[in-house]
Amino acid sequence: MIEMKGIKKIYTIGEMKVEALRGIDLEINKNEFISIMGPSGSGKSTLMNLIGCLDTPSEGEYYLEGIKVADLHHNKLAEVRNQKIGFVFQSFNLLPYATAFENVEVPLIFKGETSRKRRKRAEELLEIVGLKDRMQHKPTELSGGEMQRVSIARALANDPSIILADEPTGNLDSVSGSEIIEIFVNLWKQGHTIAMITHDKDISVKTQRIVKLKDGRVVDGGIAS
Amino acid sequence: MKGFLFLRLFLRDFKRQRKKMTLTTLAIAWGTFSIVMLLAFGEGLNRQLTKAKHGLGEGIVIMWGGQTTIPYQGLGKGRRIRFTEEDVELIKARIPEIKNVGGEYTRWGVPMSYGKRSVTEMITGLYPCYEEMRSHYPDKRGRFINELDLQYKRRVVFLGNGLKERLLGKEEAVGKTIIINNIPFTVIGVMQDKLQMGAYGGMDKDKASIPATTFKTIWGHEYFNNLVYQPGNLEKAEETKKRVYQVLGAKHKFDPKDVRALSIWDVIEDEKIFNKILLGFSIFMGVIGGMTLLIAGVGVANIMYAAVKQRTREIGVKMALGAKKKDIMSQFILESLIIAFLGGGIGILFTTIVIRILQAIPVKSEGLQFLGKPTISWDIMIITIIILGMVGLFSGFFPSRRAATVNPVESLRYE
Q: What is the pTM of this model?
């Protein structure tokens, strides 16, 4: 479903060129649950941004469900992010002025769904993550674990092809962290495809496959076994 | 973003930048105030001037006899052309597109008295159509000269309000008898107070008018001092004027192309030019007001730039969730439109109050009669709303373009 060949990403800072990715080959199949590990500076986040279509590679080819992402117009790219990618961030990135319910609605709004459909879908999703009774709470009134559950619900809004989670437990205590991982495992069992960046070996062992990065290269687990 | 979410984001921002937002909103209000006020003064001046113009008469042409300058049918140049009742009848019969036409006898230095007061003023002999043509409207109780007065050569007089004041003071004039040229006349009406700009032979308020037939009987004038006519269709005023030259030319034997055979004051043409000047003046006022609003618009843009900076992270998140450029941009444009119309609303409200107060103050001075009556018209409202919309749009557009170029990767990097 995801196919990357010889992906390079070079940043130019002033006169200096920084090679964040030096030729990545990566495959992710449908209904896989992978974790991406590596020391800081190894290019995990850059890779995540590329998979998530927030950024385009300097070199190499990237196919997302057969679509060559590099060729897309920025509006089309926004549509891909909206409908094929579900982001879960370490620091949640919820809109602070909006309720849990409204936060989940946001991707549906960008998709152009009617308010009736949005309501039905948002309620459904918040129920899945166990926050049905906290729908009208603002992020400041929620615990970290609850906020992350809202953002998982938000990521699921448009039933994406892949969920990208960037250290989703990084800001959580161990109890809520394992609850969140539990949710991801359940989603995977229900047929979702998930790629998760993590530092935590206890978490990565729960995934199907561990992709190890070092110095902008995949050193292990790039190809599905 | 849609609906409530958008409004809540706006309100949150308003709170976060309360001082700046309030000041900018006030700046817009002030800009709106100055633009509406200037336009309202322009409009008030316009209306007062138009009214004053119409004091002389609306859509009329005044004609005096001239001298021929072109030899015609064997007759030399330099002949005087003068009008009699025949000319009026001829115009009536031959030029049906003329709505009203009448001649006017005038005489200077006629003694008039009432009791112990006496004045020497101008007297005119008129026809009933002058009421409408030359705005000789009577005050509440009286009336103007009518056909019967004319037919029976009645000794009745219609007084200009200024003349009445001097002759009768505050006393009720209608029904009183005044002495004109040693002959008693009954006052039938006093002219309504009117603004008059443009006059010939003195202001109307200082004249006494009597039926043309009575005038002729007393003083035996053969010729009218002037003719006044009113075309039915102002659009065709020029053609009507040509017809007058043709018809009168045939009778008095002058070349219809001999412009100076008739001495014409075309009030209609005057008014067209006058209206152009007033339009220019209004535009000038609007531009000055618009400049003030423009400065306020810069303030709005400034706030929006700050908002873009503060919301960089949020913009990145929205982009990650699938916001297109237009989704990001519309938020900022809508917000600046809200500020523009909020400030604009306050400004318009404030202007309305100020104008109400100004209109309530009685104006005595002649000069202030023209300036002291600012008026808000629908045109002004529409113009102001359009300008506000443009200010809002432009001051939102450039910041929103910056927002749309936010790089989601960079804005999301610092976790």
A: 0.73
